[in-house]
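Friendly challenge for the regulars: who can give me the structure tokens for this chain first? No prize, just bragging rights.
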Amino acid sequence: MLKTVNSALAILKMFTREKTVWGGRELAAEMGLNHTNVYRILETLERNGFVSKDPITKQYKLGSAVWELGTIFYENLNVQEMINPHLQKLCDQTGESVFFTVLDGNETLMLTVIEPENKVKFPVTAGSRAPLYVGASYRSILAHLPENKIEDILQGELIKYTENTMTNPDDLRRDLQQIRNNGYAISHNEYTPDVVAMAVPLIIDGDILGSLTVAGPSYRINKTQQSEFIPLLQQTRDTVQWNMKKYNLTL
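First reply, four minutes later:
Bragging rights claimed.
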């Protein structure tokens, strides 16, 4: 029974932003599982609303039950009530996009995106995921993980998303140390071309939970603005940390 539950959860995790639809046999082949067992699990998930099956193509996509659970999870965080107003204030102060990113296993999860009106928007949405080694938002988290976990990440696959993506483990180690020394991270065109990002870690009782980021097009953010934005980021982070501790908010 436990093995079946693990397989069902693994199947659900195969539905990503990059791959939203799967055929049963295609899914079984990708996961290296028996296709009969995969179909049985998919049928059970479909009966319970976790996936839906297209009657014509016979392919599967996530169902409404996943959305309902995600909504409950998000509402229980009290993010909108307790944190988003401070992120909106930071967005108004800087005139740039503000991201609230949390640690989720060996990846990051974009929990909240606040964007300025009437300005260039980025292809980043709440719920998107990214690896820990690329860009300021994510390395500001990686820098505060245990050393063994950092090495696991650095010894894994390091994909080059742009020509500026840092993929050399020694360069990354030096940058992580600099982040710890400075208390913030800056990246230029690493994950998204022509974007400058500044991020600070969100730490509660010694544990790294995530990061806060201000990001914008490189033509709008020069070095002077970077130096002005970082103190605002740190002030917002301090306020968010204080609220999370006071109201016992968990991620």
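DSSP finds ten helices and eight strands in the chain. Strands lie at 51-53, 60-62, 97-104, 107-114, 129-131, 185-188, 195-204, 207-217. Your move, everyone else.
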